[in-house]
Write a structure and sequence with these properties.
Two copies of one chain form a homodimer. Chain A contains four helices and twelve strands. Chain A is mostly beta strands. Chain A folds into two domains: 147 residues, Pnp Oxidase, Chain A (Roll), CATH 2.30.110; 43 residues, Rubrerythrin, domain 2, CATH 2.20.28. In chain A, the strands form three sheets. In chain A, strands 2-1-5-8-9-4-3 form a seven-stranded antiparallel β-sheet. In chain A, strands 11-10-12 form a three-stranded antiparallel β-sheet, with no helix packed on it. Chain A has a two-stranded antiparallel ribbon with strand order 6-7. In chain A, strand 6 and strand 7 form a beta hairpin. Chain A is globular and about 45 Å long. Chains A and B meet through strand 3, strand 4, strand 8 and strand 9 of A and strand 3, strand 4, strand 8 and strand 9 of B.
Chain lengths: 199, 199
């Protein structure tokens, strides 16, 4: 068994956003899949460590912004490398609201999809949300970014970011300090410190 | 709502193979997703019209061959455009067997994954299989093909294949005859005749 074999599965990258009472929030996910067209339903698996996860579990509604190849690394950092439990991610960021009043990213996005959860499955570290698509609009013709494109063209090369630190062997996230705390969890892919190696 | 918005989700393309008694079979799918890494589990949604679907439902085991950008259109035709209910798809085709004795495609593939079903969810037109990864090996460094790459570089342009006929607006499959039978089902994406338009 070669665990790196799983890297060859192709994924897109998406901003998954939601709203609870007056709080907007979102995170980056790579697992949005249309599973049936009649009815139009999608699946998304969300790590339980994401604050967005808990909000969707409670509200049952979310938007997916399909990110394009023109998405900046700052956008991935903003939505992926910090938690909505600590900050207001919608503050100072360009967004619009769809009919469900949930935010989506009008820039660096070619499509937004609004969805309503119809069932959840506990997958241990993640929850799988099966959801009806309630709205979907195309915003641009820019190509959707794949995880592979992100790794090759958007993520800064390690040399450019730091001379010392640790790199997550799962997703490439760089922790720019030494030592790496034993209980560190990768802010992108949520893997533990044991999956990091020194730069 | 723009139903074409769903096209911007990024997918890979995979040969999904299985074995029941002495019968080997397989089909093409675009929905293989790793949902958790601890344990290593994947999801695949399979249309119930695929004979492979019924076999996996009975046997609970399958392989996924991750197809590369070098996969020929003939391979997609062989595995995707005909049913294992009618022919022996393993006949005259290069294949190998993994430890579970199920075939995988050693050529035009960069990875094979063996998996054992742990639960099934009825999604109406499709069944969703959640499965433990029992084996996975990397076979080459060729890039995985995406559905978008297939549409742009592998699928023959309509002009090259036919002067008359119908094209599936969902997946681009060309039916090279006239008229299109009313009960026709697209052999690739299983959409009905109402989703076809004249060339």
């Amino acid at each position: 068994m070669n665990n790196k074999a799983m890297y060859n599965l192709s994924y897109g990258l998406f901003a998954l956003t939601t709203r609870e009472n007056d709080k907007d929030n979102g995170c980056i996910v790579n697992t949005v899949t249309q599973v049936t067209t009649s009815p139009n339903r999608i699946l998304v698996a969300v790590n339980k460590k994401n604050y967005t996860h808990d909000m969707i579990l409670r509200t049952g509604e979310f938007n997916v912004s399909i990110l394009t190849e023109h998405t900046s690394f700052d956008t991935f950092k903003h939505w992926g490398f910090q938690s909505g439990a600590d900050i207001d991610k919608a503050l100072g960021i360009p967004f619009k609201r769809s009919a469900n009043q949930i935010i989506y990213l009008p820039e660096e996005t070619n499509t937004y999809i609004s969805a309503k959860v119809i069932s959840t499955t506990d997958l241990g570290t993640h929850t799988l949300f099966l959801a009806d698509v309630t709205d979907a609009e195309v915003l641009s013709n820019d190509p959707s970014v794949t995880y592979s494109y992100y790794q090759q063209h958007i993520k800064p090369a390690p040399e450019q970011t730091s001379k010392k630190g640790y790199v997550c062997t799962i997703c490439g996230y760089i922790y720019e300090d030494d030592p790496l705390p034993e209980d560190f969890i990768c802010p992108i892919c949520k893997h533990p410190a044991s999956d990091f190696k020194p730069l």
